[in-house]
Every structure is written in structure tokens, then in C-alpha cells.
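Attaching the record inline, Q. Sequence:
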Amino acid sequence: MAEQYEIIIQPRAEVDLDEIYVWLMEHAPGYAEGWFNAFEARLAQLTTFPERFPLAPENQFGVFDRQVRQLLHGNGFWKYRVLYFVEGTSVQIVHIRHGARRWLGESADE
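Structure, as predicted:
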């Protein structure tokens, strides 16, 4: 049987998620609840084999002191990146970012 990982959403990621939900409620209220429910289901995929998702581009910029991975959620304009670490038997969600935003650590000149 596969090891089960606990998902822990760090305070910064909680803020990100709250901001996303507020924005969706203001701009696409009919979409917000469905997006959030699907997001929770997507996060649940991290409870088993979280290392199967790719390393995040942020690793090349040295933003974090350990390897960070990313889980994508949504399509097109609605795509978000969930940045997380695997620590022991937990998955630490550290950021949730819109897919169109620059990578953390990427300068505006690159």
C-alpha cells in the first residue's frame, strides 16, 4: 500500500488561496465554487506519490532552500501552479500562483 502524505497549507499559500477565491467571486462568481471544489480534489492527489509531479522552475533561481515541486490546476487562463515541498510524510504547500505570473525569483529583465 502506498504511503499517505499529510497536506499542510502554509500561511502564505492560505493567503494566496483566499485572494484567488475573492477574485473569482468578483469576476466569475458562477465559476468560483466549482473551481475551488476541483482545486481541493486536485490537492488530494498529493496524498500519494507527491514526487511524481515535476520540479518547479523556481529551483533554478535559488528562491527556496530545498527542492520545490509544482502541481498544475486548471486550464488556459484559469491555470494555477501549486508550489510545494515534500518533507517526511507531509506535503507543505507554500504558494499558489496564477500560471501567467512570473516565476518566483525571475527578474523582469529575463
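Residues 50 and 82 are 12 Å apart (CA to CA). Residues 6-98 form a domain with the YaeB-like fold fold (CATH 3.30.2310.20).

More tomorrow.
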